[in-house]
Amino acid sequence: MDNRTTVRKAERMTTSEQTLATGAWALDPAHSSVNFSVRHLGISKVRGRFNNFETSFVVDEAGTATIEATIHLDSFDTGNEGRDNHVRSADLLDVEKRPTLHFKASEPVQVAEEFEVTGDVTLGGVTKPITLEVEWGGVQQHGDGSNHAGFSATGSFKRSEFDVAPGLPNAMLSDKIAIELDIQLVEPKA
């Protein structure tokens, strides 16, 4: 089968017809991102990303996935070095005392075209629940022959729940932090 036939077949296949191979899927960091936005002064959004993160996505024989992720907070990046250094400081994220944000799904999830993942976020010594709305983009073969799965997820949490910048008024920086994840994973080798 040539590449054109493979692409045509993949275009006809919907995500509901696809299945995920069992095992630990590896993160493709070149095609993945962890982004956020927060309102500044109540009038505009500041957008940024975290450049360093890991995921654990393991599919069992029943087709359900256990999910965990760790974000390294010192990789905070809005494209403004002065602002980024200030956010990393003890005034806001305090990355020396709180180097990571960790997410762990409460239970294995069944992957579908659209689904929710509920789990716990831990930042410093504080753990709070969060629910992510997830869209599965399906599985597609990469040019190197490996199969990749794509997911997009959105959610939000309140910085006050994690004691981030407790003295900063919400009029200055919104309490709500919106997150958007685009994750591409590589199928385990047989």
From TrEMBL:
Annotated Lipid/polyisoprenoid-binding YceI-like domain residues: 24-186
Protein name: Protein YceI
Matching InterPro entries: Lipid/polyisoprenoid-bd_YceI (IPR007372), TTHA0802/YceI-like_sf (IPR036761)
Similarity section: Belongs to the UPF0312 family.
